[in-house]
Amino acid sequence: MSDATLSSPSTTATPRNIPDRLHRRGARALKSWEFLLALVAVAIFVINCFASPYFLDPWNLSDATFNFTELGFIAFPMAMLIIAGEIDLSVASIIAITSTLMGAAAAAGAGVGLLVAIGLGTGLICGAFNALMVTGFGLPSIVVTIGTMSLYRGFSYIILGSNAYTDYPAGLAYFGQGYVFWVFSFELVLFVALAIAFAILLHATRFGRAVYAIGNNPVGARFSGIRTGRIKAILFLLTGLLSGVAAICLTSRLGSTRPSIAFGWELQVVTMTVLGGVSILGGSGSILGVVLAALVIGLVTFGFGLLNVPGIVMSIFIGLLLIGVIALPRLYARLKPRVAARRG
Amino acid sequence: MTALPPATSLSHAETDAANAPPVLALDGIGKSFPGVRALDGVALELYPGEVTALVGENGAGKSTIVKILTGIYQPDGGTIRLDGQEVRFPSAADAARAGVTAIHQETVLFDELTVAENIFLGHAPRGPLGLIDWRKMRQEAGAILTRIGASLDPGAKLSDLGIASKHLVAIARALSIDARVVIMDEPTAALSHKEIHELYALVDRLKAEGKAILFISHKFDEIFRIADRWTVFRDGRHVGSGRMRDVTEAQLVQMMVGRAVDQIFPERTPAPGPRVMQVEGLSHPTEFDDVTFDLHEGEILGFYGLVGAGRSELMQCLFGISRPSAGACRIGEVDLAARGAAGAIGQAIGQGIVYVPEDRGKQGAIKGLPIFQNVTLPSLGRTSRSGFLRLAEEFALARTYCERLDLRAASLDQDIANLSGGNQQKVVIAKWLATKPRVIILDEPTKGIDIGSKAAVHAFMAELAAEGLAVIMVSSEIPEIMGMSDRAIVMREGRIAARLDRAEMSPEVLVRAAAGIAADAKAAPLATEEPA
Prior knowledge:
Largest sheet of chain A: 2 strands, antiparallel
CATH class of the domain at 1-99 and 195-258 in chain B: Alpha Beta
Low-confidence stretches of chain B: 1-18, 520-532
Strand content of chain B: 15-25%
CATH architecture of the domain at 1-99 and 195-258 in chain B: 3-Layer(aba) Sandwich
Number of strands of chain A: 2
Order of helices and strands of chain A: HHHHHHHHHEEHHHHHHH
Oligomer: heterodimer
Strand order of the largest sheet of chain B: 6-7-8-3-9-10
Radius of gyration of chain A: 23 Å
Number of domains of chain A: 1
Helix content of chain A: over 70%
Distance between the termini of chain B: 35 Å
Largest sheet of chain B: 6 strands, mixed
Number of helices of chain B: 18
CATH superfamily of the domain at 1-99 and 195-258 in chain B: P-loop containing nucleotide triphosphate hydrolases
Mean pLDDT of chain A: 88
């Protein structure tokens, strides 16, 4: 332990003080994506208030939340998956196969408990298959899940054809139609609970830190001792499981299952995630952003519904909103130096 | 050791009366990168119908001069003359137009295209409408392939060919532009014995066609086999040039390494402690074979060798990135070679072996994450409670090690991507020291970082060894190996070629062992194995 021979000025000089943070967290939050989204949400809320007298009714607002709750369940694990640099496009098809199997079981006389178990189990199995293909065989997740997107829904079509399951036990209705307290539906309460749970998982645990590390540099994460395959596999399992949860709620809410159930939802989930500020290239994003994006989409859908705007116009609006919200900050960043140059 | 030949400056070249004037003549070429002077007024002349061997250590400036000649880099100063006319190559296309072409160590080819398409990519013969004249392209490709003696089908897809055939395609591509100057950058590195001889025949044919050839190689036997002239670079400077028949191997080696060690290394009094790690007969299916060595507390063990000698692969295997095919790696009572593939790296970290990789940007720094998160990534077990992060403890841990390494950063919350290379390296080293390792493996720890950071890393390595840490340092820089290591192992083609004590190390011995040159009796390789 003899440092006596050392004469290096760089290591014996008084250490420099490096501050933990340069800016206060509050100052940074004001510039954040989430702040911008919150402003958009408030603006849409205010516009809605003026646009329709029925908007501010608590029950109407409560109904509006069904526009995003089920999508939101899947958007949380999807956000983590995209942050880790992967994606799952089979989520809507997982809903289809899950709901179909639940319907078949209900037709065979299964009770509510068994139906829920089938719903969660099917979601997990579908997620596990995606995980195996991506992390086990090293295939790109976008290709694998485009494949399983057709595969899972294909099973639904084989089982159901042009028929539908409509006989569900009365007890199942609670998940999609029940209220926990006053106007607060079971789905809304579950949405809030899941938002909190996923926010903690992503932002406050070692697991979440590993997700960010993998998304920013998968090789570097592996070279730091992170078991990247295992973490990605867990994320695919979570996405499958939450797709199962969404399937249970959606089936309960609709009271029927057709093979086309939740058709196109995978893109709506990805839209919600990206609108929430999750980088499609991986590495950054937050659960708060996804929650705010869910609120924005829900408010827009509800407002347009009150005004009797056709659905196609709404999808155009959501598309423009997505492009606008993503393009504006980049345009601003590009224009800022020019503006500053002109002024200076 | 015989005396050096007179270090002929290039202006003396005309003493050879039979000589045609040089096709290409470089003079006073300089090139600087931030913190590094890669080339400092070098000269180089290439003659028609002759092969000039460019010799130098790693980092001597050989690759830089190739990039300048092919228009990829612009020199800061100096002149390039083609047939006596001063020229500039602002882009790769300009260099190609002037007839300068290069065959690189790893040529960029396109697996999904045909042989003919690869040869003519970017300058395909065109028909009247500006469309590619496929028939003509195939014919010309066939003609070039015949000229270089390659029996390849121009219509074959590249992905169906072996490495040697791909190499021929690369050569054909280089010749498709009617080159007058052909640069070959370690062309035999990936070739088998038979293919190498075919390449020699090809070089002879190109000479007969009057091309001027610049041949870069570490292998002395092949330099003496095919070169007519030599030029030696050292540390970005021109050391000498001349004819092969006037020079010996020993003289070339001496010119390559004969520098005054101008870097200052920390003074150390090494006091090796007990053994921490024992590697026995460790082998890999392709990269290295039968590697045996011991590592002791408080020592710095240097690994020298040419690029591709298997050093990094060996270190990554010790760290658990790849699996050995045979052998053992014991640390304490644990044999890390016997571990399963899953979680092997975690186990190595758990046993106190950590690895600071050579490829800092890809394997070391996690760009996009702030400094403190980079530092604590492998130590999260200590800074978290049952899986939950504790930011205050993370900042404290990161601060301890970053300040110890004299990191220059605005804040610990800053993205590591915004730091200079040297400071990124400090963060990566801090990351591993924070795990409190017993063995730290540093792979080219000062590659591409500025002199100041270099000195800091060296001083810190000495400090770590003094504290009892076992340090393995992989380096391709002879001064660094000689200045820092207590013992050195030289690897060549995946095997240990020499083991040297500090007293036995000399630039000549290191270079000879690494290049596989038959050594004189004094520095017999494999002569100095210490008892296990």
